[in-house]
């Protein structure tokens, strides 16, 4: 048995070289031990999108994300449609006091507010609203399609 300590943040060359193999071990572990289904979202199905109406990915996914938010709020929190419309969604999860910043020594995505979108078969099934700051990542909110609650996306997102 050989054990290596590999720097994950910032990712070292060893980490990058062994990432896929490590991920496959993790996925198999999750399926065998925790009985995760094989179609649980993968690393390639998660997009980190800056919360900005200037960002093309954010703009193109806004309606789908807002609709998912409303579906979640009504199913899980029993909100009425008027309590989870587009204006409420924007106020609650898109308007942020943080300003985007991309310092040369910071993460590739920069600092600021993001929507971490989980995609499956071409549609968003969950969104983690997060703030990436110089010394931490803050989870603001997570909403998901109740039809996919069997995937435990809140747990997956927290661990991720």
From TrEMBL:
It comes from the Eukaryota. This is ATE1 transferase. It comes from Asarcornis scutulata. Residues 66-160 form the N-end rule aminoacyl transferase C-terminal domain. The keyword Hydrolase does not apply. PANTHER family: ARGININE-TRNA-PROTEIN TRANSFERASE 1, ARGINYL-TRNA--PROTEIN TRANSFERASE 1. It holds the Pfam family ATE_C. The keyword S-adenosyl-L-methionine does not apply. GO terms for cellular component: cytoplasm. InterPro entries: N-end_Aminoacyl_Trfase (IPR030700), N-end_Aminoacyl_Trfase_C (IPR007472). Keywords: Transferase. GO terms for molecular function: arginyl-tRNA--protein transferase activity.
């Amino acid at each position: 048995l050989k054990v290596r300590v590999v720097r994950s943040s910032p990712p070292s060359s060893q980490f990058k070289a062994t990432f896929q193999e490590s991920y496959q071990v993790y996925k198999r572990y999750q399926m065998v031990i925790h009985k995760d289904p094989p179609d649980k979202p993968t690393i390639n199905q998660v997009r980190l999108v800056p919360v900005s109406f200037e960002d093309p990915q954010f703009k193109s996914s806004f309606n789908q994300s807002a609709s998912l938010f409303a579906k979640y709020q009504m199913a899980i929190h029993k909100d009425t449609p008027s309590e989870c419309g587009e204006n409420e969604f924007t106020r609650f999860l898109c308007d942020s006091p943080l300003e985007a910043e991309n310092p040369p020594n910071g993460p590739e995505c920069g600092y600021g507010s993001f929507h971490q979108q989980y995609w499956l078969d071409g549609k968003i099934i969950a969104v983690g609203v997060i703030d990436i700051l110089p010394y931490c990542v803050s989870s603001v909110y997570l909403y998901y399609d109740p039809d996919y609650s069997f995937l435990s996306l809140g747990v997956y997102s927290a661990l991720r």
